[in-house]
Amino acid sequence: MRTLATRPSPIRSGRLKCVAALGMASLAVLAVAGCGAGRTGGGSGAGLKIGTTDKIYSLDPAAAYDQGSYVPETQIYQHVLNFAPGQAVPQPDAAEKCGFAQPVVYTCTIRSGLKFANGDPLTARSVKYSFDRMVKINDPNGPASLLENLDHTDAPDDHTVTFTLKVPNDQTFPAILPTQAGPIVDEKVFPADKTLPDEDIVKGKAFSGQYVISSYDKNKLVQYRENPDYNGLLGKPKTATISTTYYAEASNLKLDVQNGAIDVAYRSLTPTDLESLRGDDKVKVLSGPGGELRYIVFNLNTMPGGTPDQKLAVRKAVASSVDRDALASGVYKGLFKPVYSSVPQGFVGATEPFKEIYGAKPNKDQAAKFLADAKVPTPVPINLQYNPDHYGSSSSEEYAAIKGQLEATGLFKVNLQSTEWVSYNKERTQDGYPVFQMGWFPDYPDPDDYLTPFFGPNNFLKNHFQDPGVSAQLSAEVTEPDVEKRKAILAQVQHDLAQNFVSMVPLLSGEAIAVVGKNVSGAEQTLDLSTKFRYGVLSK
């Protein structure tokens, strides 16, 4: 997700203000009613309480491509296909069945009698409207780039929807339907050509998933209740009412899960906090294959360097200077592992070209040669931006360490700055940051999800990278049904990206982690490569 994904993963701010000093979730629940702007709905207490430091950027699927927004979207929107907990193969959700009618035509039959929580019918025409809208709006902070291969969508009747693709034999398209690009929205509530404010989504009761939002105080307190009209893959949720409290500080999140004020802490506790909680017999620290990626992005227009060759030399010098092992062990205490490609190890076709080309350890001499050969004056001034609240509070320590690593070579002078998530996500898409932090959570469990969203046309990084040769390679790997041939294409594109472009430098990969009370069950089922944190499996 993808902003991060990466999902990625993407970006915004919105801190708890008048409740920031209150460590207990119970106090926060009392406080936000009196001090929060943008509160919608009444709502009552929740049967299960969740805490997070992530922030919601938008509830409109067309406007958000980040994990903080993906979590509520997972609860409130239905998809044509979806991933069942723990499963890596998409299955029918709003659909009864789907399949390729032709190499470029993917056809789905939509269930009869579906409806949104406000009573509006959910039909094949709703599906067509949702995908047409996603592509038309093409919001810079949204996930429309995932639909790059979608030519058009048709709904010849209420039960049939056809997706016509630009390139045949797309091996990933079924897995894209359950992603952040695929929520089904109400055509009577969502405008076709612009995004909808969260408050209007909540008031319009435009929900099709397992839950509806009963009370909404953005990035403070969101309350959910079961949607009795949901009819799909995920079934009836195990807990009828759930609330999510949003924390400004990971330390308060840790305190509240530790003392039972909340039942689940999901994103993002510090490595030190997790180490401490593993020794606490009142909670369980659970992990699963999350596929998270942390990396540095270069804006190819505004980064240092007077010519394209000089800019490339700077990027290669940075790739030769970072110490991933030090970040993994020193900052993250082994919770993350060094990664040497945008595709983490464990995925089909993953290779390690950054290790082969730039080395597993920092190489000052090699970095200096890249700069000298391109006649780049040193020290190179780098304005490096990071986000302190969306990717976890350890980002401050991580990027202070990266600044130290780069400056220790004597080749760089780093101006390190931070911006909170809401502003960060907007500014990085508007050429606000020459070099900046990003994180990624996979949209679907396939190596292409670590490639096309980053390096394809209309990529979500918005860093001005586009190359016809790379685009052709990406198209080839997506449409190659032979596994071994596809692995060869994947290996080649990873090498070419690392050798010839370096538009981003991969740093670390990690697992999905949740901390739950001893009486809470179900979280193990949802910590999987889909990165869908499903409230419906949780109970106590």
TrEMBL record:
This protein's record includes keyword Secreted: no
Domain of life according to the entry: Bacteria
Cell compartments where the protein resides: Cell envelope
Domain Solute-binding protein family residues, every copy: 104-459
GO biological process, one term: peptide transport
Pfam families, A to Z: SBP_bac_5 (PF00496)
Range of residues in the leader sequence: 1-33
Single GO MF annotation: peptide transmembrane transporter activity
Any one of the GO CC terms: ATP-binding cassette (ABC) transporter complex
Annotated TM spans: none
Cited InterPro entries: Peptide/Ni-bd, SBP_5, SBP_5_dom
Keyword tags: Signal, Transport
Coiled-coil features, chain-numbered ranges: none
UniProt record similarity statement: Belongs to the bacterial solute-binding protein 5 family.
Protein name (record): Dipeptide-binding protein DppE
Species for this entry: Nocardia aurantia
Gene: dppE
